[in-house]
Design goal:
This protein is 42% helix and 0% strand. It has 159 residues and is mostly helical. Helix 2 crosses helix 5 and helix 3 packs across helix 4.
C-alpha cells in the first residue's frame, strides 16, 4: 500500500499495477499485454479519459518508479519532478523515437502527462497531496526541444 498522501503506487482491491513499463530488461521480458491493468481498471480509465493509449498510463507509472529509484529515499514527487522523469525515461527507453512514441500514445505536452496522472488520481489509483495540481505539469518542458532539438544526435549533419 502507498503511504498516506504521497504520489506512489496504490494497489486497489488486490489489483496490482506492474511498474515500470519499459521494453525488455525492466519488464523481465514480459510483453506489453502482460503489463496491462487487471480487473477492469483500464476500462474505468478509458471511460474517464479516452484520449490516451493504455501504454501512456503504464509509462507514467513506470516514470514514477524511475523517479523514486533516483532518490535517496522514497518521498512525495512534485508534478514537475514527475514530468521531467517522464522525459528522461522516454529518452532512455526510446531514444530518438521518444517524442514519436509519446505522441502515438496521445501525449503531446507535459500538461498531457498531468492529465494522465490526475486521471489515475481521480480513480484512486494514485494518491496526491492537496497542493498537487494539474498546473504543475504545464510547460515543464517543450516536447520538440526535449525530443528533437536537444537530442544528442540533433547536431549531426546529414551526409
Amino acid at each position: 500500500m502507498a503511504t498516506a498522501r504521497s504520489l506512489h503506487f496504490l494497489f486497489v482491491g488486490g489489483t496490482q499495477v506492474v511498474p515500470p513499463f519499459s521494453i525488455g530488461d525492466l519488464t523481465g521480458g514480459k510483453s506489453v499485454p502482460e503489463l496491462a491493468f487487471r480487473d477492469g481498471i483500464m476500462d474505468r480509465i478509458r471511460l474517464r479519459e479516452p484520449r490516451f493509449d493504455e501504454r501512456a498510463y503504464l509509462f507514467v507509472l513506470g516514470a514514477l518508479e524511475y523517479c523514486q529509484r533516483r532518490l535517496d529515499e522514497r518521498r512525495h514527487i512534485s508534478g514537475r519532478e514527475l514530468a521531467l522523469a517522464c522525459r528522461d525515461l522516454a529518452l532512455d527507453r526510446f531514444g530518438v523515437m521518444a517524442g514519436l512514441v509519446l505522441e502515438h500514445w496521445g501525449v503531446r505536452s507535459s500538461a498531457d502527462l498531468g492529465d494522465v496522472v490526475f486521471t489515475l488520481v481521480d480513480l484512486e489509483l494514485l494518491m496526491s497531496q492537496p497542493s498537487d495540481t494539474r498546473e504543475e505539469f504545464a510547460d515543464v518542458f517543450d516536447f520538440d526541444q526535449a525530443f528533437a532539438r536537444e537530442y544528442p544526435w540533433s547536431g549531426v549533419l546529414a551526409v
